[in-house]
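hey so i finally got around to running the thing on that chain from the lab meeting. sorry it took forever, my laptop kept dying and i had to restart like 3 times. anyway pasting the input first so we r on the same page abt which one it is
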Amino acid sequence: MREYPKYIIVRSFGIYRQALLEEARLLREKGLLQQEEDIFYLCLEELAALLENRLMEDVRGVIDSRKKAFEHHRRMTPPRVMTSEGEVVTGVRSGVEAPEGALVGTPASSGAVEGYVKVVLKPEEAKLKKGDILVAPYTDPGWTPLFHSAKALVVEIGGMMTHGSVIAREYGIPAVVGVENATKILKDGQYVRVNGTKGFVEVLEDELHEK
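ok and heres what got predicted. didnt touch it at all, straight out
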């Protein structure tokens, strides 16, 4: 029962999305949008103006500008710790027994395994194979199907009770979260050891293996 309200919300948003995309199709046919997904870069007031033929000036320019801003922010790495006042807390993790050169994070699901790295930035673009080590910036419910194939999880953002940690424990795979810049440092095909008990990722073979 706890998950049912979430199901209703997600289902409702799916219906809203389809309705918006239908409106977007009509706007694209009129030449007001370049592609249907552009509708999600407009606020409701702007969308209403388009639908009521109260045309905005340079609507495509507004959309292009917001796309660039979105992409810029998407590429930024959020801080591991931030206070309620917005202060970024930095520092070196202490008390972690890890080999020299290992990437250190927070142990989130116990166990230690070895495998080949697969960096995934978007779940819809994932080409994960059975037994791969899933390395991602974060996870949310949309990533859950990938856990069927993953041998272990390494994410840049998260704590003991965030999505990836909870799902990794449910699937019984090791997980290390809060590994800064993991998606940039680790490369597809590297052979690594993930220790979800102590909280580190060790590169065992730096040579990239094609899979």
